[in-house]
Specification:
The complex is a heterodimer. By secondary structure, chain A is mostly helical. Chain A has 14 helices and 2 strands, in the order H-H-E-E-H-H-H-H-H-H-H-H-H-H-H-H. Chain A has a two-stranded antiparallel ribbon. The radius of gyration of chain A is 25 Å and the shape is globular. In chain B, strands 1, 2, 3, 4, 5, 6, 7, 8 and 9 form a 9-stranded mixed beta sheet that branches. The termini of chain B are far apart. The chains are: A mainly alpha, B alpha/beta.
């Protein structure tokens, strides 16, 4: 029936996809137009803006690469890039480690497993701004519940986000609490799909639980972990709401990441040209990192091993 | 006559009832007629109003029905949180086609921006036009300081200062009594009082104020006003690295490091408020607009114990840092005259008094502050009203009247925050001054 529907003069796919008729592109046109409207044109506009000096309410002047050279010598921008990477590394490594461990635990059979799994994934369902507001109250150095709990076990109060030296690690703590369940879900999904044969063989060979995890489970779930790493990396790089609500980039600039810096330039100081240059740099960083991670994921696929 | 009273006829009762029903309408008509002002000139007009989300805007919205009944003008207003409202105003005014006729502006941040961008209409022609301004409006009733705060450099008046906020000192009277200390008479005394009241072992700080960058600027400028100096001179020169500014910076540093609770480096007004309200600090320097929750028994542990002190004098001056909001008419509005009626009504004597009585903030009108009715049934003590009146007399701008106020707050805010981690005040202020100078110069050029 399908064959009859095909026009006799048209080449078939068996002859090679490169011969696909041009009119087929019409079907892709709506999607292309949509892409052009919502992705490509704003991106091009940002690119154009990045070579302009444009402050809302002021004149627009072409400055070439001026904004980029200014960025290269802007210590606050450079520090925010370094801080973003540091925050991202921590906000990826900890949830990945803890999420994988949680997945291994929840993969086993034990009483109330379903209930505990549900409770475990609950943080993920909360709105980031609401989560941030609650944590802000808990971090209060005098009246927060966290320091109260520390006092119960005889520990001195901690400054949490109110100290430039501990603010990043504390913000990472919020991220870990919020997003470890997502990693657990991804890895758990991967573990459910694992074949049982290698484990049967290993059991017959007398392998220990650790050996089975280290030499069978971990290599097999690595592709899933890489998916989680990609998602977490992109999420951590672009995190804004949590940091803005809790610290607004402070104390001082101690938690000012690229996104906070960008927000300040664009929506507080209205330096749209300079902010567009920041966006372009950020775009390049995100693309480069994503390509690197996708390459690594490809390398870790089962069939590529 | 006595017969009528004793045994009223049916006709008399019916006539009396009719008169009773008609009385409110007749009286209202008479009230309007007394001033001879035609509030109905723009009957049927629809106004759009952009407000900042706060208790004062709640009151403005509550008065809308009454305004519509009086004028026939329909009002569509929206309240947007402060930061987002400022962005919306900026973007819409810059676009040249704002979607609102009336806008609420933070004078301490947007005053010069509004002038530079020609956002708002000059209100002087409206004030001078007897057909547009009700005789009982009495513009002269607005406090001189508030009017001066809203007036632009060229003399134009583009806002009505409906709300003003003074920085003062909240203090815990019980803690002061326990230590036998009286309210400080100078800024230096304030530090020594805070030292005596500071008791970290009991979790009590002698003093609390904002440390978070940007939010911390008014703390520093309050100290600097004690030197009789603002951060920018009347000729537009930065005075942020002068000995006076450094003295104020040192004051900021020692008050927030030596006698403050741990973590003030990240405190905004809300953390300070919570700390003070829970009886964990003896003094709190901030705007008087934050007083309401302190006297709310469901939120505060120090109800009835709060003292309201005027900011003490410094070595060379005695001032209270002034902030405020104004209402203005969009220059591109096609309903400017109706918008002017809206502003007149919302800022009339009755509504300004209502704002004060509700604890929603300090109104721009002197008559509201002087009105003894304000204290009747108020949750605030007499001291609160005295503090308001006294602060009003010595008020001076708490932020520089420049275009890049936000950058100023950011750059100097970061420098001041760094001092709380031990950095040298003079070095930080000089560094910040150097960084900000080109931004200021550029803003004045373009």
């Amino acid at each position: 029936m399908t064959d009859k529907a095909l026009p006799a003069t048209e080449p078939t796919h068996a002859g090679g996809t490169h011969l696909a008729p041009r009119r087929y592109f019409l079907f892709a046109l709506p999607a292309l137009l949509l892409m052009a409207a919502v992705i490509i044109s704003p991106w091009l506009f940002t690119l154009v803006m990045s070579v302009m000096e444009f402050k809302v309410g002021g004149a627009i002047n072409f400055v070439g690469l001026g904004n980029f050279t200014k960025l290269a010598s802007d210590s606050r921008f450079l520090e925010s890039v370094g801080r973003t990477f540091w925050f991202t590394v921590l906000a990826v490594v900890f949830p990945i480690g803890l999420g994988t461990a949680a997945a291994v635990v929840f993969h086993r059979q034990f009483p109330f497993r379903g209930l505990l799994r549900t409770i475990f994934i609950m943080p993920m369902m909360a709105t980031p701004v609401a989560v941030a507001l609650v944590w802000t109250m808990m971090f209060h150095p005098q009246l927060g519940v966290l320091n109260y709990l520390l006092s119960l076990i005889g520990l001195a109060p901690f400054a949490w986000v109110y100290d430039p030296n501990t603010v990043i690690i504390t913000l990472v703590l919020v991220e870990v609490w919020h997003w470890t369940p997502l990693v657990m879900l991804i890895v758990l999904g991967g573990m459910a799909a694992l074949p049982t044969d290698p484990y049967d063989s290993a059991t017959i060979d007398g392998a220990s639980d650790w050996q089975m995890f280290r030499f069978i489970t971990l290599p097999l779930i690595l592709p899933y972990i890489m998916v989680a790493v990609v998602i977490r990396t992109i999420d951590a790089l672009k995190v804004f709401d949590t940091i803005f609500v809790i610290t607004q980039g402070g104390p001082g600039t101690a938690s000012e990441t690229l996104n906070i810096f960008l927000y300040l330039q664009a929506f507080q100081f209205y330096n749209l040209g300079y902010a567009s240059a920041v966006v372009m740099v950020f775009f390049v960083i995100i693309v480069a990192l994503s390509l690197l991670l996708l390459y690594m994921r490809q390398r870790l696929k089962w069939n590529a091993a | 006559m006595s017969r009528i009273v004793d045994r009223p006829s049916r006709r008399f009762v019916v006539a009396g009832a009719a008169a009773g029903l008609a009385a409110p309408f007749l009286m209202r008509h008479e009230a309007l007629g007394q001033s001879g002002f035609n509030w109905k000139r723009f009957d049927g007009t629809k106004l759009d109003v952009l407000l900042v989300k706060n208790p004062r805007s709640d009151l403005l919205q509550a008065h809308e029905k009454e305004f519509t009944a009086l004028t026939g003008i329909q009002v569509s207003s929206e309240q947007i949180p402060e930061q987002q409202q400022r962005q919306k105003a900026m973007i819409e005014f810059t676009s040249g086609r704002p979607t609102f006729d009336v806008c609420m502006l933070a004078l301490h941040v947007q005053k010069r921006l509004a002038a530079k961008g020609k956002w708002l209409d000059d209100l002087r022609p409206y004030l001078a036009d007897a057909s547009l301004t009700s005789p009982d409006f009495d513009y002269g009733d607005f406090a001189e300081g508030a009017v001066g705060f809203g007036r632009q450099a060229d003399g134009s008046v583009d806002t009505l200062p409906h709300f003003i906020d003074f920085w003062m000192v909240y203090y815990n009277k019980e803690m002061f009594q326990q230590k036998g200390i009286t309210y400080p008479k100078t800024m230096d005394e304030m530090f020594s009082a805070a030292q005596k009241l500071n008791d970290p072992s009991k979790g009590i700080a002698g003093f609390v104020s904002r440390g978070l960058k940007n939010a911390n600027i008014p703390v520093w400028t309050s100290w600097m006003l004690g030197q009789g100096m603002e951060t920018v001179s009347p000729t537009g020169q930065l005075q942020t690295d002068t000995p006076e500014a450094i003295w104020a910076g040192e004051m900021y540093k020692k008050m927030n490091r030596e006698v403050a609770p741990p973590g003030t480096v990240g405190f905004n007004w809300n953390e300070c408020q919570t700390t003070f309200m829970q009886g964990r600090a003896a003094m709190w320097l901030d705007g008087i607009g934050f007083a309401t929750p302190l006297e709310d028994p469901t939120k505060s542990r120090i109800v009835g114990k709060v003292g309201y002190g005027v900011t003490p004098p410094g070595p060379k001056g005695h001032h209270s840092a002034l902030f405020g909001d104004g209402l203005g008419i969009s220059r591109t509005s096609t309903k400017k005259q109706a918008a002017w009626l809206y502003m007149q009504f919302m800022c009339n004597k009755g509504n300004q008094l209502a704002m004060l009585k509700a604890g929603a903030g300090s109104p721009g009108r002197s008559s509201a502050l002087a009105n003894p009715d304000a204290q009747v049934g108020s949750r605030f003590s007499k001291e609160y009203f005295e503090c308001l009146a006294a602060s009003g007399k010595i008020a001076r701008a708490g932020l520089p009247q420049i275009i890049p106020v936000t950058e100023f707050r950011d750059v100097f805010g970061v420098g001041l925050t760094n001092t709380l981690s031990g950095a040298d005040v003079a070095t930080e202020l000089r560094k910040a001054t150097e960084a900000f100078k080109p931004v200021l110069e550029k803003s004045e050029q373009g």
